[in-house]
Write a structure and sequence with these properties.
The radius of gyration is 25 Å and the shape is rod-shaped. The chain is mainly alpha-helical. It has one helix at 3-28. The protein has a domain at 1-29.
């Protein structure tokens, strides 16, 4: 393979790996640290249950 082919291959793989790392970082990290509880388990007002239905 010629020098131009090697350069093209290295740049291409660099872009692919860079995008992969960017996507993994965006997916696996968030602004809020995990609290160990789901939002559904948070205390708050409960909806009233209608018994006349």
């Amino acid at each position: 393979m010629k020098l131009g082919g090697w350069i093209f291959m290295l740049i291409s793989w660099g872009i692919i790996i860079g995008l992969f790392v960017y996507c993994m970082v965006r997916t696996l990290t968030s602004g809020n640290p995990p609290s160990g509880e789901d939002e559904e388990d948070q205390p708050g007002p409960r909806p009233e249950i209608r018994k006349d239905v």
